[in-house]
């Protein structure tokens, strides 16, 4: 007689929560390793060189645009195919062809552009000559481009609701990076800033890139051919995400460009350290959003808005409580954290700056939750409409407020730009789409 076993505990837990939990564990490992890495880098490079390191690392967001939205488009196509119980290997194969072409094109462009862009962007760091600036700029860019295309592997895993794999790889990469940073710091190598950049960013780019190549070759074996008719649907949706991402970069990725132009190295270090600490806390929330993205995509495909809005309400409350509590703790314990990260350096983070950073991240939680819902259904028109205005507001305010208020002016500008645009536009659009979808059923 066969006895039906009761489902195990793991089988009763929603897959997106398992993905989020694995992300939190992975991020904890990455964070601990990252904090020790920062300490080693600041001690080995000094404040000025670390500020340059922070600026080059802060430019990575621009390089993540190199895939032209193909990764995000692929994730949604896979989710839709899965919802209809259809195969999707042909989409992965075509995405691989597009990605390899775009990656080579991006690196070629960067090779010729670096001698012109590097001296312009890194003008505030006179301890390097133009040739050295171009070399550091180029190597960081190449690694970041590899990271971008490797990130497609993460998108595939998330769409397959195997996001735990997308969390293991960054944790392993961070451990390899830490070992490489320690090696560079203790070795007699010249040009330690250059090799520190390679050590810090290289593994995070190379490991996912290898994973994506394996996924690509596997999809070629499973699908009969690369179907050209898939090219346009994949690129059409990807271009929408890409345009949205370009405009978002005008909001979120201009901070280091402005700081490199207007602020001293010490304030850049303050911003970098505080952003990394808050980034760790915020990642706990974004990990959950990324994990629930395909769940929302499938729910929207079924027109199950009760599930979608339930997640929205639960996660916003959870995120606000998380950030509020973390901000309060950091207001008391930030001096000890800074002493741990930058011992012996004249780095001080004012309590007011901690509070406004906390407020900014709370606004981001509200906005990004509704943004995830719209992106899960590939509805990007609102982003195209409001983000250009937000980008203009951000740039104008940061350029005008940074010289007056220092590093706090950068965050004041971000708070103002989100409050005037995304914080009310995105919720309105989600509720409007919900009403339209439900009325169509009735």
Automatic annotation (TrEMBL):
<feature type="transmembrane region" description="Helical">
    <location>
        <begin position="241"/>
        <end position="259"/>
    </location>
</feature>
<protein>
    <submittedName>
        <fullName>Polysaccharide biosynthesis protein</fullName>
    </submittedName>
</protein>
<feature type="transmembrane region" description="Helical">
    <location>
        <begin position="164"/>
        <end position="185"/>
    </location>
</feature>
<feature type="transmembrane region" description="Helical">
    <location>
        <begin position="346"/>
        <end position="363"/>
    </location>
</feature>
<feature type="transmembrane region" description="Helical">
    <location>
        <begin position="312"/>
        <end position="334"/>
    </location>
</feature>
<keyword id="KW-1133">Transmembrane helix</keyword>
<feature type="transmembrane region" description="Helical">
    <location>
        <begin position="91"/>
        <end position="117"/>
    </location>
</feature>
<feature type="transmembrane region" description="Helical">
    <location>
        <begin position="383"/>
        <end position="401"/>
    </location>
</feature>
<keyword id="KW-0472">Membrane</keyword>
<keyword id="KW-1003">Cell membrane</keyword>
<dbReference type="GO" id="GO:0005886">
    <property type="term" value="C:plasma membrane"/>
</dbReference>
<feature type="transmembrane region" description="Helical">
    <location>
        <begin position="16"/>
        <end position="38"/>
    </location>
</feature>
<feature type="transmembrane region" description="Helical">
    <location>
        <begin position="197"/>
        <end position="220"/>
    </location>
</feature>
<keyword id="KW-0812">Transmembrane</keyword>
<feature type="transmembrane region" description="Helical">
    <location>
        <begin position="137"/>
        <end position="157"/>
    </location>
</feature>
<dbReference type="InterPro" id="IPR050833">
    <property type="entry name" value="Poly_Biosynth_Transport"/>
</dbReference>
<feature type="transmembrane region" description="Helical">
    <location>
        <begin position="50"/>
        <end position="70"/>
    </location>
</feature>
<feature type="transmembrane region" description="Helical">
    <location>
        <begin position="407"/>
        <end position="431"/>
    </location>
</feature>
<feature type="transmembrane region" description="Helical">
    <location>
        <begin position="279"/>
        <end position="300"/>
    </location>
</feature>
């Amino acid at each position: 007689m066969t006895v039906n076993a009761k489902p195990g505990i793991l089988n009763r837990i929603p897959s997106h929560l398992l993905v989020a939990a694995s992300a939190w564990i992975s991020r904890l490992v990455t964070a601990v390793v990252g904090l020790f890495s920062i300490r080693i880098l600041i001690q080995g490079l000094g404040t000025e060189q670390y500020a340059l390191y922070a600026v080059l690392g802060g430019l990575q967001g621009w390089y993540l645009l190199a895939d032209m939205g193909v990764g995000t488009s692929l994730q949604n196509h896979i989710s839709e195919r899965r919802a209809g119980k259809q195969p999707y290997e042909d989409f992965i194969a075509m995405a691989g062809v597009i990605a390899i072409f775009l990656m080579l094109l991006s690196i070629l462009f960067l090779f010729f552009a670096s001698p012109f862009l590097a001296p312009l962007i890194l003008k505030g760091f006179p301890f390097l000559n133009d040739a050295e600036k171009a070399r550091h700029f180029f190597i960081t860019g190449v690694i970041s481009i590899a990271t971008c295309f490797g990130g497609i592997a993460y998108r595939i895993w998330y769409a397959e609701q195997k996001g735990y794999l997308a969390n293991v790889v960054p944790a392993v990469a961070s451990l390899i990076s830490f070992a490489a940073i320690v090696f560079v710091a203790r070795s007699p190598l010249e040009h330690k800033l250059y090799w520190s950049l390679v050590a810090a960013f290289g593994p995070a780019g190379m490991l996912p890139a290898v994973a994506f190549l394996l996924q690509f070759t596997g999809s070629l074996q499973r699908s009969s051919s690369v179907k050209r008719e898939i090219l346009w649907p994949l690129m059409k949706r990807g271009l929408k995400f890409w345009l949205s991402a370009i405009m978002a970069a005008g909001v979120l990725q201009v901070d280091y460009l402005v700081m490199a132009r207007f602020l001293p190295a010490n304030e850049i270090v303050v911003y970098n350290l505080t952003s990394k600490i808050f980034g760790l806390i915020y990642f706990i929330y974004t990990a959950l959003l990324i994990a629930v993205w395909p769940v929302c995509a499938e729910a929207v495909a079924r027109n199950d808005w009760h599930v979608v809005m339930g997640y929205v309400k639960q996660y916003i409350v959870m995120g606000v409580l998380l950030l509020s509590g973390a901000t309060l703790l950091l207001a008391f314990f930030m001096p000890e954290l800074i002493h741990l990260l930058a011992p012996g350096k004249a780095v001080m983070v004012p309590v007011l700056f901690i509070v406004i950073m906390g407020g900014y991240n709370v606004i981001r939680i509200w906005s990004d939750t509704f943004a995830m819902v719209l992106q899960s259904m590939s509805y990007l028109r609102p982003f195209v409409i409001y983000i250009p205005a937000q980008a203009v507001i951000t740039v104008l305010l940061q350029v005008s407020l940074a010289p007056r208020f220092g590093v706090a002016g950068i965050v004041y500008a971000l708070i103002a730009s989100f409050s005037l645009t995304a914080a009310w536009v995105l919720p309105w659009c989600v509720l409007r789409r919900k009403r339209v979808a439900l009325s169509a059923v009735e």
